[in-house]
C-alpha cells in the first residue's frame, strides 16, 4: 500500500512540474496580477527514482492486497448469452414443399411426346365390314333405374404364364388410327356418370381429351353427357351372367342383343361404339370356339341395326402363346378390338411382363389375318394387384389399386404417362382409357380423381 501511495505522489509532482510551463497552457481567465518568476530553483527529480517507481513489478502480497480492496466485476449475463448463441448458429430455413398437384404438373411438363411418324406405318385401305346406315333420331332418353356399381366376380382359372418380352416395334401394316400429330392416347374410364356442374364434368366438357369409356351410359342424365368427346359404352352385368350368354352361342347372342337393344338406341349418336361381354376363360379352346360364335352373331345384329361394335376386354397377360389366334374369326368382323393391361406395383416395372403385351398379341394376329382385317386397338390400363394373384406372386391383389401400393397420385400419373408414350409408338392404338374415375367403395384404391385427369388433359396438344 505504501508503494502505491509513493507512486501517486511522484505523479502529482510531475503534474506540478508540467503546470509551470506557461507556454503550454492558456492564461487563467481569473488572473488579476502579474506573477514574478521566483529566483529559487525548483527541486530536481532524479529520473532513476521515477523509473523504479514506474516499472518495478508488484509483489504477490501487494497484488493480493489490491485484489482484496478492488475486486473484479462479475461477468455480464448478456455476454455469456452472446457467446453461447454464437456457438450455435441459426438453422437454415426448411425449403417449401410443393403441392402434390404442382409436382405432378411439373412432371407432366417435363415429359414431351414424340409421336411416331405415320410414314413408318403405311396404312392400307380398310376392308372391314360396313357398320351399315346410322340413323340419328332426336334423343329422347327415358328414366332408368340407378346404375349398379360394377363388382366383378372371379371364377378361378388355371394360371397362364405370360410372355415376358414385349414384341419389338416394327412396321406392321396395321392401320393408323389418327389423328395425325396426337400427343396422348389417354382418356377417362367412367364407372358412373360425371355429374353436370361438377369439376370432373367441367374438365371433360371443356378439355382436350378425345374420348371416354362409360359403364352403363344409357343411365346418364341429359346434362351429364359429353357430346364433344367420342364415347364408348359397355353394359355391365355380373360375370356369371355373361358366361351363360356366351355358352349359349348364337342364341345367347340374340338374347343378349335384345336385352340391351334399348340402351343402344337410347344413346345412338352419343356413343360412338359399344363393347360386348368381357368374361372369358383363358387356355380353353372349346370355350374360345363358343365365344367366337357368340361374338360373330352379336356383331352381325349390331351392324344390321347401324351400330358400331367392338369385342374383347381381356387382360393381355392371361393369354398363352398364340391363344388369341383362336379368336381371329370374330376379331376380323369387329370395328374395334378391346384389351386391358395391368401391372403391379407399377406399369413401367411391368413392361414386358404384364404390360405392353398387346404388341405380342397383335403380331400373333398378323400370322392368321391380313393387316387390313385387324381392327384398331383400344386399351384400358391400371395398376391392379390382381396380377399378383394370377401370377402366383406375394402381395396385395384383387380390388387393390395404386393407393394400396402407397403410390402418390403424382407418381402414378408419371407412371401412366410413360405407358401412354409407349402406346403412341403403335399407330394402331386408338385410345387408352385410364381406370377408373367416379369410383365406388369397392374401387376407391383405383381412384383417378379430377386433379389427375387435369394432368392427363395437359398431355394432349391444343387443337
Indicate the structural class: alpha/beta
Spatial strand sequence of the major β-sheet: 1-2-3-4-5-6-7-8
β-strand amount: 5-15%
Strand segment tally: 8
N to C succession of SSEs = HHHHHEHEEHHEHEHEHEHHEH
If you average the pLDDT, what whole number results? 76
CATH T-level fold name of the domain at 161-459: TIM Barrel
Portion in helices: 25-40%
Describe the model:
α5 runs parallel beside α14 (450-459) and α8 packs across α9 (285-304). This protein has helices at 2-19, 47-55, 60-69, 77-87, 100-110, 199-206, 239-247, 249-266, 285-304, 328-331, 358-365, 386-390, 409-423, 450-459, and strands at 186-190, 211-215, 230-234, 271-275, 309-315, 336-343, 377-383, 429-437. It has 463 residues and is of the alpha/beta class. The termini are far apart. α11 (358-365) links the parallel β6 and β7 (377-383). It contains 14 helices and eight strands. The chain has a domain at 161-459: Alpha-Beta Barrel (TIM Barrel). Mean pLDDT is 76; it is low at 12-40, 42-59 and 69-164.
